[in-house]
Amino acid sequence: MDMISAYPWRREKELVYEERRSRGTCPLTPEEMALVLQALGFGKSTQIYIASGEIYGSERRLMALRAAFPRLVKKEMLLDPGDLQQFHNHSSQMAALDFIVSVANNIFIPTYDGNMAKLVEGHHMFELYFLWLCKFCT
């Protein structure tokens, strides 16, 4: 018995990409993200951290983004393989690593409005509110 049929309330998602893309609800592709970043004025020297798991199409899909911004960084590049190994079977812990790096940076630009984007945005809002509130505490 497969996982989906074991739970009757679960079902496979029906993904209709053309419809989602026309509504603007598909994540941006690496090529589209390169165009957005260039339009915002980011140059080739900008270091970009890619906070994600496996990217569909892997390195082939990243070629346009890497050509525009050669300083791409992933968590696999920041940690030693031995240190990263303990997180490999724990996707929530891998996401936590991405969260830590994302909130430590000055700019966070999500490619889609998922949970990570909402969490990082909420964290930045809280930090700004806390700074504003502290003005009245002193």
Automatic annotation (TrEMBL):
One Pfam match: O-FucT
GO molecular function, one term: glycosyltransferase activity
Keywords: Carbohydrate metabolism, Fucose metabolism, Glycoprotein, Glycosyltransferase, Membrane, Signal-anchor, Transferase, Transmembrane, Transmembrane helix
InterPro entries: GDP-Fuc_O-FucTrfase
Membrane topology: Single-pass type II membrane protein
Pathway(s) per entry: Glycan metabolism
Main location: membrane
GO biological process terms on file: fucose metabolic process
Source species, domain of life: Eukaryota
Gene Ontology annotations for the cellular component aspect, listed alphabetically: chloroplast; membrane
Compartments, as annotated in UniProt: Membrane
UniProt entry tagged with the keyword Kinase: no
Family note: Belongs to the glycosyltransferase GT106 family.
Protein's UniProt name: O-fucosyltransferase family protein
Protein species of origin: Coptis chinensis
